[in-house]
Amino acid sequence: MNEFFKRLFVDPEPDDPARFGKEIATSAKRYLAFMIDYTWITLVLAGVYPFFMPELWDQKQTGELVVSLIPVYCLGVGLFLFRDGFGGSSIGKSFLNLYVVNLDQEMSLASQTQRVKRNLLLVILPVEIAAILLDKYARRYGDKWAGTLVVERIKPPKVRRITHKALGAMTLVCALWSLYVFAQPVSIKKASGFQQAQESLTGFSPLVEVVGEGWEFGYWPEVEYALDHTTYGFEVNGSLGKTKVEVVLDTTEARPKVVDIRLIRDEKSR
C-alpha cells in the first residue's frame, strides 16, 4: 500500500526525452487523443448493443436489461483497458504520434502490464483529467502508478503521412458510424411496441388495397417517442406498389394499444 501511494504522490524527474528522439506529450494532445479513443469505443458499443437487447426489451425490468447487456459492458471495459495495445499507442495516440513509455527503462516501450495498469484508474476519470492539467509532465495518476509517461515521436511533418492518417481516421469513423446506423433497426424491431404495431397491420384491408397481397416491410423502421404515445413508421412493398404506414400506440397504460393507423401513399404507386 505504501508503494502504491508513493507511486502516486512522489514525482520523480524523468530523463530528458529529447535524448531518445522524443518529447513529452502536451496535455492538449493527451485530451485530443483520449477524445478520439472515447469516440471510436462509443461507436463500437453503440453498434454492438442492439444485438444483445432481449426480445420485448421495453417490457423488461431495468435489472433484466442490465444483465442482458453485461457482454457489452465487458467489451467496453476491455477496449478501454487494452486500448494502448497498438505498439504502446491507442488509435487516438497513433494519430498524434504519441505512445506510452517506461520511465524506469530509459524511455523504452511500456509493457502490456503497465499499459493496462495505467488505464485501471480511468474509473476516476474526472480526477485523472484534472491530474493531466496539474502535473508538469501531463501525467495522470494511472501513469504514476504504472511508472509510465506519454511521449511524442519527434518526426518532421510530411504531407503524405498526414494525408494517410486523415484518410484512415475518416475510414474508421465511416465504418463505425455505418455499423451504428445499420444496427439500430435491430433494437427497434425487438421492442414489444414495434411488434404490436406490425401485427396490427396484418389483415388491414386499406393496406392490402394499396400494395396488394404478399407485401413485406422495408429494413428501416421509423420511431418517434412522445410522452403519451409512440409512432412507428413502416415502408411496405407489395405487388401493386409501395406505401408508408404510420401506427400510433397509446403508451399511457401498462399495455400499449393501437389508436390510429395512417396510410401515406407514395406518389409513384398511385
Helical amount: 40-55%
Could you tell me the mean pLDDT? 87
Total domain modules: 2
Q: Are there runs of 5+ residues with pLDDT below 50, and where?
A: none
Largest sheet: 5 strands, antiparallel
β-strand percent reads: 15-25%
Number of strands: 9
Based on Cα principal axes, name the global outline.
elongated
Tell me the radius of gyration: 26 Å
Question: With helices defined by DSSP (H or I, 4 residues minimum), what is the helix count?
Answer: 11
Q: What is the ordering of alpha helices and beta strands?
A: HEHHHHEEHHHEHHHEEEEE
Structural class: alpha+beta
Distance between the termini: 77 Å
Transmembrane segments: 31-53, 65-82, 166-183
InterPro entries: RDD
Subcellular location: Membrane
Pfam families: RDD (PF06271)
Describe the model.
By secondary structure, the chain is of the alpha+beta class. Helix 2 packs antiparallel against helix 4 and helix 2 (27-48) packs parallel to helix 9. Strands 5, 6, 7, 8 and 9 form a five-stranded antiparallel sheet that branches. The model has no long low-confidence stretch (mean pLDDT 87). The termini are far apart. It is built from eleven helices and nine strands. A hairpin with a 6-residue loop joins strand 8 (241-250) and strand 9 (257-265). The protein folds into two domains: 2-187, no CATH class; 191-269, Roll (Nuclear Transport Factor 2, Chain: A). Keywords: Membrane, Transmembrane, Transmembrane helix. It comes from Candidatus Lambdaproteobacteria bacterium RIFOXYD2_FULL_56_26. Pfam families: RDD (PF06271). It is a multi-pass membrane protein. Residues 25-146 form the RDD domain.
